[in-house]
Amino acid sequence: MSEREELCNRPVGVFDSGVGGLTVAREIMRQLPNERIVYFGDTARVPYGSKSRDTVTKYSRQIVRFLQTQDVKAIVVACNTASAYALDELENEVDIPIIGVVKPGARAAIEATRNGKIGVIATEATVSSGIYSRYINENDKNVTVLSKACPLFVPLVEEGLWEDPVTDEIAERYLAELIDVGIDTLILGCTHYPMIRSTIGRTMGESVTLVNPAYETARELKQLLHDSGLESDHRPGLGTELYRFFVSDAADKFQKFANSILTYGILSAKVIAIDEY
Amino acid sequence: MSEREELCNRPVGVFDSGVGGLTVAREIMRQLPNERIVYFGDTARVPYGSKSRDTVTKYSRQIVRFLQTQDVKAIVVACNTASAYALDELENEVDIPIIGVVKPGARAAIEATRNGKIGVIATEATVSSGIYSRYINENDKNVTVLSKACPLFVPLVEEGLWEDPVTDEIAERYLAELIDVGIDTLILGCTHYPMIRSTIGRTMGESVTLVNPAYETARELKQLLHDSGLESDHRPGLGTELYRFFVSDAADKFQKFANSILTYGILSAKVIAIDEY
Predict the structure, then answer these.
(1) Which of B63, B79, B98, B120 is catalytic?
(2) Are the beta carbons of B144 and B136 closer than 8 angstroms?
(3) pTM, two decimal places
(4) Which residues lie below 8 Å from residue A124, measured CB to CB, with a gap of 6+?
(5) Domains of chain A, earliest start first
(6) What is the distance in angstroms between the Cα of B38 and the nearest Cα belonging to chain A?
(7) How far is residue A52's CA from residue B21's CA, in Å, rounded to a whole number?
(8) Hey, which residues of A are catalytic here?
(9) ipTM of the predicted structure?
(10) What is the pLDDT of residues B200-241, one digit of tens each?
């Protein structure tokens, strides 16, 4: 095997504060079926959405160090909060390609909007970082961005209330302002939100385009791997472990949730002591 | 000042995974006005309720080490999950008195029940630890204990929906089984739950006694300090800091929440790096 081939055969590292990033992993599995994935979910320290910049950056740095021990060829920060708070610093610290979910989502929203009014729903941390509006306005200063934190969406998703009157009620409260302002494009700025996409879509109405950064990120990863000559051009052979999952705690619970999201049944998730990295 | 006096003047250490333990601190402030308190809220790693025994024990051990650097004379584990998972081990490791919230709550429920049917509502971790039923049945094997995990109560409380139709609806779903079984006593087995005590009380009906372990724990602490001769017999003088608050992250948010719970306005909370202890 040539050195280049060996490099291309390495897995892509994907990480999130917990299970949410599996929606990103799922899109990568769909759009890049030749790529191996090493997924890390920080289930011991979830959620990131209510934590400070310093803490989220420190945690992200530990995870990147762990992923590098797994010989990954590129890293996807599959967590909006970590992308918002830590990506810029991480980019300076590692010598492999690293992308987050914010920029791909923001770019897709700029392309989608017709009336120049984009909404962003996300965790408190992502909203208060202002990253979506900053990035959107750097690219198009005529767009108005309205951000809204929706702290109950994550627990509602994790409790399995994906189709439920309570989730409808909470969605109506959170989204009312965005409807009033007349946005025509809404970014699902937290990786848990695609699971309640139908509720959000129903509440916003048909005229509003929902942007799923998970989908856009997988597209951008494909392009990035292609451009940097890191693409794997064949499906790994039998006996190669295609997808590996690591967590910092409670592997059983992770597996159960993962199996409700991924069509590919995950065999097992291994617990590692992330704070030692 | 005699050695004994110096010892009695030391503060009591109180810790929780986050803000919930403030309901316990509040009861201690009310019932033991002479006692100084050092509170630690593990806001960087909250919640504990969905984490494993090993992780919760490791975190609790770090916090105990931190509290010992603050010269505390006794420690209150003001978190049901940590009391359930870590208290037994901690008791063996420290040489000062340490109490949790589970036993005081369980004892009060045994005293309160008339029909021998006790309900416990708590986090997933506390419920799956089985600690309340084990402890209750060790003391009275004729009592039937029915436990129910209520994972959405904590986020609902933290989102401020203390009196809200959504909280009513969720409470009705969670509590239906307990009503069907005909319990006459219900332990609020998570320190956040006293904040939605009225909703829970309304849902259960007037005939059900609600047991608040925070209240019982403060009573037990009073007895314990008295019995071990560690009671402070006078209100600390002017210039002595009565209550000190430490957190592992996001001090501003903690302060805001604390001020909505405590009548005593907290001046500031200091952030410390708990994983270095």
Answers:
(1) B79
(2) no
(3) 0.89
(4) A49, A50, A149, A151
(5) 3-100+215-276 (3.40.50.1860), 103-213 (3.40.50.1860)
(6) 22
(7) 21
(8) 79, 190
(9) 0.86
(10) 999 999 999 999 999 999 999 999 999 999 999 888 776 678
